[in-house]
Amino acid sequence: MEKSIKNNLLAFCIPTYNRSEILEEVLEDLISKIKDYSFFILISDNFSTDDTKVIVNKYMLKYEYIIYNQQKENLGADKNIQSTLKLFKANYYWLIGDSACLKNKSLLPILNFLTVENPDAYIINVSSRVKNLPSQLFVEREDLLLKLGWHMTQLPALIVSERIVNNNYFKRYENKSFFQFGIIFEYLGLQEFIKVYWDDNDYINKPKTKKINTWYPNKAWEYFMKNWADTVFSLPSSYSLETKIQCIKNHDKMTGIFSVKSLFYQKSAKAYSFKVFTKYKKYIKFSNSNLLICFLISIFPISVFLKKNIHSKQ
Fold first, then answer.
1. Quick one: pLDDT at residue 152?
2. Considering the entire predicted model, what is its pTM?
3. Cβ–Cβ contacts within 10 Å for residue 72, how many?
4. 75, 201, 211, 256: most buried by Cβ count inside 10 Å?
5. Are 313 and 258 in contact (CB under 8 A)?
6. Distance (Å) of CA 36 to CA 3, 31, 48, 63, 297
7. d(CA 136, CA 197)
8. 10 Å Cβ neighbour count for 194?
9. Sign of dihedral through CA atoms 275, 278, 279, 281?
10. The pLDDT of residue 313
11. Where does the Glycosyltransferase 2-like domain start and stop, copy by copy (predicted)?
12. Cα–Cα–Cα angle for 136, 137, 139, nearest 5°?
């Protein structure tokens, strides 16, 4: 079937901002894996101040199937993701991002499935985050939200159909930090029948280039306590409240982002305080965290954490 695969079957979306060094490695790797198919690479640059444009221009000379858009101002992550989806009309869009490389695995199983089965979306494992869930076809949206909703916050895990993109539920999920998750489950929630394939195979490698930190502890509570809950609760009423709440809890459970260890780390990084606790307290019941423990850590003297860090470095 390889010869019959058209180059508009799949496009690779790379929203990016100030990661030119990593982007260079990602493009070098991606082009080597997809050049035989002539798949398009869609890059939207969110007004980077580094040499992103220079790097992209370099690779546009090497590979003709790159479409590049440079924003005139920083529009935020969600709108920049949207921009990549509007650069080219493809059957499917892999939201690979600017910090993921493909493993040396054949893409044919994915391409053949997309061609023959025409699913609404195709979800892959990333860094083996999902444990003990074998590859399978999901036809029940509640089951998908419950088992994989927490994982579908990851851009590289998502291959979405043009049907999802064309339904244009963008505005509803803008500026909530989980735009990609929202538009997928909004679409699925309004369909009579769904078809989403989960592939337990891990096709993603981390770049070898020293990675720019994407974990900002000062944003943890805003993004993963408040925005995550708000996004899930915004989904259509076709998803039960019970399933929504469990999906919200599953993210914390699976990632440990609000575990005691993580809260101590946030405290030592001066990213967690009684002020933060007070601001987001009403959301704690939707996590796996204990309200009292969160409170106690929030008032614990930060000097203790700073002294511990100093001694650990000596």
1. 99
2. 0.93
3. 6
4. 75
5. no
6. 10, 9, 30, 11, 54
7. 6
8. 20
9. positive
10. 36
11. 13-130
12. 140
- The 8-class DSSP code of residue 118 comes to -
Residue 233 near residue 244, CB atoms below 8 Å: yes
Residues whose CB is less than 8 angstroms from the CB of residue 104 and which lie 6 or more positions away in sequence, other chains included: none
Which residues of the chain are under the pLDDT cut of 50?
1, 310-314
What is the rounded CA–CA span in Å between residue 118 and residue 161?
8
Cβ neighbours of residue 12 under 8 Å, at least 6 residues apart? 30, 34, 39, 40, 41, 42, 93, 94, 96
Output DSSP code: residue 314.
-
Q: Are strands 92-94 and 10-16 parallel, antiparallel or unpaired?
A: parallel
- The whole-angstrom separation of Cα 83 and Cα 17 is 13
- Six-digit token string for 99: 């910090």
pLDDT for res 310: 37
Residue ranges of domains in the chain: 2-205, 217-313
Query: What is the chain's percent helix, strand, coil content, to nearest 5?
Result: 50, 15, 35
Closest alpha carbon to 184 in 219, 136, 232, 216: 232
Query: Closest by alpha carbon to 306, among 272, 261, 269?
Result: 269
Distance CA 277, CA 294 (A): 7
